[in-house]
Amino acid sequence: MLETERLTLRRFTLDDVPAFLAMNTDPHILRFTGGDKAITNLAEAEQAMRAAPLADYEKYGYGRLAVEHKASGEVIGFCGIKYLPEFSLPEIGYRILPAYWGQGLISEAAKVVLAHGHNELGLDHILALIHPDNIGSIRVAEKIGMRRGEQAEYFGMPVWLYASVRG
Questions:
Q1: pLDDT digit string (tens) for 63-85?
Q2: Could you say which DSSP state residue 121 is in?
Q3: Which helix or strand (DSSP H or E) is residue 161 part of?
Q4: Hey, is 144 helix, strand or coil?
Q5: By CB count within 10 A, which of 65, 73, 153, 163 is most buried?
Q6: Helix (H) or strand (E) run with residue 22 in it
Q7: Of 109, 30, 130, 103, nearest in space to 67 by CA
Protein backbone atom coordinates (compact mmCIF):
# COMPACT_ATOMS: atom_id res chain seq x y z
CA MET A 1 0.00 0.00 0.00
CA LEU A 2 1.16 3.50 -0.86
CA GLU A 3 -0.15 6.76 0.55
CA THR A 4 -0.14 10.41 -0.32
CA GLU A 5 -1.75 13.32 1.48
CA ARG A 6 -5.12 12.72 -0.20
CA LEU A 7 -4.91 9.18 -1.55
CA THR A 8 -4.40 5.56 -0.63
CA LEU A 9 -3.07 3.29 -3.38
CA ARG A 10 -3.62 -0.41 -2.79
CA ARG A 11 -4.05 -3.65 -4.66
CA PHE A 12 -7.42 -4.18 -6.25
CA THR A 13 -9.77 -6.71 -4.67
CA LEU A 14 -12.96 -8.19 -6.06
CA ASP A 15 -14.87 -5.69 -3.91
CA ASP A 16 -13.61 -3.05 -6.36
CA VAL A 17 -15.32 -4.56 -9.42
CA PRO A 18 -18.05 -1.84 -9.60
CA ALA A 19 -15.42 0.92 -9.50
CA PHE A 20 -13.30 -0.98 -12.04
CA LEU A 21 -16.35 -1.12 -14.32
CA ALA A 22 -16.89 2.64 -13.98
CA MET A 23 -13.32 3.53 -14.97
CA ASN A 24 -13.41 1.10 -17.89
CA THR A 25 -16.67 2.29 -19.44
CA ASP A 26 -16.41 6.08 -19.31
CA PRO A 27 -16.07 7.34 -22.91
CA HIS A 28 -14.00 10.36 -21.79
CA ILE A 29 -11.39 7.97 -20.40
CA LEU A 30 -11.55 5.27 -23.08
CA ARG A 31 -10.96 7.55 -26.07
CA PHE A 32 -7.20 7.41 -25.37
CA THR A 33 -6.77 3.81 -24.22
CA GLY A 34 -6.47 2.00 -27.54
CA GLY A 35 -6.30 -1.72 -26.93
CA ASP A 36 -8.77 -1.92 -24.07
CA LYS A 37 -11.62 -4.29 -24.83
CA ALA A 38 -15.02 -2.78 -24.13
CA ILE A 39 -16.38 -3.84 -20.76
CA THR A 40 -20.14 -3.61 -20.48
CA ASN A 41 -21.16 -5.28 -17.21
CA LEU A 42 -19.96 -6.41 -13.79
CA ALA A 43 -19.15 -9.95 -14.93
CA GLU A 44 -16.87 -8.64 -17.69
CA ALA A 45 -15.29 -6.18 -15.26
CA GLU A 46 -14.52 -9.00 -12.83
CA GLN A 47 -13.06 -11.12 -15.63
CA ALA A 48 -10.89 -8.19 -16.79
CA MET A 49 -9.75 -7.51 -13.23
CA ARG A 50 -8.78 -11.15 -12.73
CA ALA A 51 -6.94 -11.20 -16.10
CA ALA A 52 -5.04 -7.95 -15.58
CA PRO A 53 -4.25 -6.44 -12.18
CA LEU A 54 -4.91 -9.55 -10.09
CA ALA A 55 -2.95 -11.81 -12.46
CA ASP A 56 -0.13 -9.25 -12.70
CA TYR A 57 0.28 -9.19 -8.90
CA GLU A 58 0.81 -12.95 -8.98
CA LYS A 59 3.05 -13.07 -12.06
CA TYR A 60 5.20 -9.94 -11.60
CA GLY A 61 4.67 -8.88 -7.99
CA TYR A 62 3.21 -5.55 -9.10
CA GLY A 63 0.36 -4.17 -11.18
CA ARG A 64 -2.18 -1.40 -11.42
CA LEU A 65 -3.32 -0.18 -8.00
CA ALA A 66 -6.72 1.09 -6.93
CA VAL A 67 -6.63 4.81 -6.16
CA GLU A 68 -8.82 5.50 -3.17
CA HIS A 69 -9.76 9.06 -2.19
CA LYS A 70 -9.13 9.34 1.56
CA ALA A 71 -11.88 11.89 2.14
CA SER A 72 -14.64 9.67 0.73
CA GLY A 73 -13.10 6.18 0.80
CA GLU A 74 -14.21 5.86 -2.83
CA VAL A 75 -12.06 4.19 -5.52
CA ILE A 76 -11.69 6.95 -8.10
CA GLY A 77 -9.21 5.41 -10.53
CA PHE A 78 -6.07 3.39 -10.86
CA CYS A 79 -2.37 4.08 -11.01
CA GLY A 80 0.36 1.52 -11.13
CA ILE A 81 3.07 -0.27 -13.01
CA LYS A 82 2.32 -3.06 -15.43
CA TYR A 83 4.80 -5.16 -17.38
CA LEU A 84 4.34 -4.73 -21.15
CA PRO A 85 5.69 -7.76 -23.03
CA GLU A 86 5.34 -5.82 -26.30
CA PHE A 87 8.13 -3.50 -25.11
CA SER A 88 9.84 -5.87 -22.64
CA LEU A 89 9.57 -3.07 -20.07
CA PRO A 90 7.29 -1.97 -17.25
CA GLU A 91 4.86 0.86 -17.90
CA ILE A 92 3.23 3.29 -15.50
CA GLY A 93 -0.42 3.82 -16.30
CA TYR A 94 -3.10 5.90 -14.69
CA ARG A 95 -6.78 6.50 -15.04
CA ILE A 96 -9.07 8.68 -12.94
CA LEU A 97 -12.78 9.36 -13.14
CA PRO A 98 -13.55 12.68 -14.88
CA ALA A 99 -15.19 14.13 -11.75
CA TYR A 100 -11.68 14.21 -10.25
CA TRP A 101 -9.78 15.65 -13.22
CA GLY A 102 -7.88 18.90 -12.75
CA GLN A 103 -7.22 18.47 -9.02
CA GLY A 104 -3.67 17.12 -9.25
CA LEU A 105 -4.74 13.78 -7.79
CA ILE A 106 -3.37 11.53 -10.50
CA SER A 107 -0.06 13.43 -10.52
CA GLU A 108 0.10 12.88 -6.77
CA ALA A 109 -0.53 9.16 -7.26
CA ALA A 110 1.84 8.78 -10.23
CA LYS A 111 4.70 10.47 -8.40
CA VAL A 112 4.60 8.00 -5.51
CA VAL A 113 4.07 5.02 -7.84
CA LEU A 114 7.05 5.98 -10.02
CA ALA A 115 9.30 6.39 -6.96
CA HIS A 116 8.07 3.03 -5.62
CA GLY A 117 8.82 1.39 -8.97
CA HIS A 118 12.38 2.63 -9.03
CA ASN A 119 13.23 2.44 -5.32
CA GLU A 120 11.29 -0.51 -3.91
CA LEU A 121 10.69 -2.63 -7.01
CA GLY A 122 14.17 -1.93 -8.41
CA LEU A 123 12.93 -1.11 -11.92
CA ASP A 124 15.60 0.81 -13.82
CA HIS A 125 13.51 1.89 -16.81
CA ILE A 126 9.77 2.66 -16.70
CA LEU A 127 7.73 3.72 -19.72
CA ALA A 128 4.48 5.62 -20.15
CA LEU A 129 2.60 5.21 -23.43
CA ILE A 130 0.52 8.29 -24.13
CA HIS A 131 -1.70 9.18 -27.07
CA PRO A 132 -0.43 12.46 -28.61
CA ASP A 133 -3.81 14.16 -28.06
CA ASN A 134 -4.02 13.21 -24.38
CA ILE A 135 -2.75 16.51 -23.03
CA GLY A 136 -3.73 15.69 -19.42
CA SER A 137 -1.67 12.48 -19.36
CA ILE A 138 1.25 14.22 -21.05
CA ARG A 139 1.20 16.87 -18.31
CA VAL A 140 1.17 14.19 -15.61
CA ALA A 141 4.15 12.36 -17.16
CA GLU A 142 6.14 15.58 -17.47
CA LYS A 143 5.18 16.72 -13.98
CA ILE A 144 6.60 13.51 -12.47
CA GLY A 145 9.85 13.91 -14.41
CA MET A 146 9.35 11.57 -17.36
CA ARG A 147 10.94 12.51 -20.68
CA ARG A 148 9.34 12.13 -24.08
CA GLY A 149 11.10 9.88 -26.57
CA GLU A 150 10.02 8.49 -29.88
CA GLN A 151 6.54 7.92 -31.21
CA ALA A 152 5.37 4.32 -31.60
CA GLU A 153 2.20 2.38 -32.25
CA TYR A 154 0.34 0.39 -29.60
CA PHE A 155 -2.74 -1.61 -30.55
CA GLY A 156 -3.05 0.41 -33.75
CA MET A 157 -2.92 3.73 -31.91
CA PRO A 158 -0.11 6.29 -32.04
CA VAL A 159 1.61 6.86 -28.70
CA TRP A 160 4.51 8.89 -27.39
CA LEU A 161 6.97 6.82 -25.39
CA TYR A 162 7.77 8.67 -22.18
CA ALA A 163 10.49 7.25 -19.97
CA SER A 164 11.89 7.47 -16.48
CA VAL A 165 15.32 6.01 -15.84
CA ARG A 166 16.55 5.30 -12.32
CA GLY A 167 19.77 6.95 -11.50
A1: 999 999 999 999 999 999 999 99
A2: S
A3: strand 157-165
A4: coil
A5: 65
A6: helix 17-23
A7: 109
